[in-house]
Amino acid sequence: MSTVEQSIELxxxxxxxxxxxxxxxxxxxxxEGVDEVRQIDDTHTHWRxxxxxxxxxxxxEITEQHPDERIAWHSISGASHAGVVTFHRLSDERTKIMxxxxxxxxxxxxxxxxxxxxxxxxxxGDLERFKELVESRGQATGGFREDVxxxxxxxxxxxxxxxxxxxxxxxxx
Length: 173
What we know:
Oligomer: single chain
Number of strands: 7
CATH topology: Alpha-D-Glucose-1,6-Bisphosphate, Chain A, domain 4
CATH class: Alpha Beta
Radius of gyration: 16 Å
Distance between the termini: 31 Å
Number of domains: 1
Largest sheet: 7 strands, antiparallel
Structural class: alpha+beta
CATH superfamily: START domain
Strand order of the largest sheet: 1-7-6-5-4-3-2
CATH architecture: 2-Layer Sandwich
């Protein structure tokens, strides 16, 4: 398993950065090698990719999500990978995003590419393109503002009052 950790600072509020990140179907606009992401439901996505000339499809599941804080996921089909992206408020208008990705390279080409740092370079480039995208817009194109609890964590009781400072409106994914 190969682990990549990257971070980037954005000149947008944490809510804007987080909300834009929840727009998975827009990932092809900034992620190299991603041709399509389809949102299946609140916690499942289907991906079509092409990396080093090799086309692949896989499904991923969001395992934890907390507005303006974190999104964690893992693959449930295709190549084995998992990750977490966290959002850190630096000021009212500045956010730091930290991304950790664990991936299992498949085949000799991916193993050699990973050994030569291709995954790290691509991840860094993806974050830089995300920064450019979200800063140029100045606002998110939508947002998903609901919690997804980590496995084994209790969800708040139905009808529980929202936590102070949270926004309970679910904007389109």
